[in-house]
Amino acid sequence: MARNRIIVPEAKNAMEQFKMEAANEVGVQLNNGYNGDLTSKQAGSVGGQMVKKMIQSAENQLKGSK
Predict the structure, then answer these.
(1) Distance (Å, whole) CA 48 – CA 44
(2) What would the mean pLDDT of 3-24 be, rounded to a whole number?
């Protein structure tokens, strides 16, 4: 059962775009909607890229606040 709820519903479209960009960066082709045919490696690559970009963004914000 998936538990990947969007905490801020207004961000849903932006998160979808973010996921597509991350997938493109790691060379994974995503479809709109269901992507259950992805391998665990592909899904992990997309998720890992998303986390990497989020951490980089947070680090840049922290750097700018000093």
Answers:
(1) 6
(2) 90
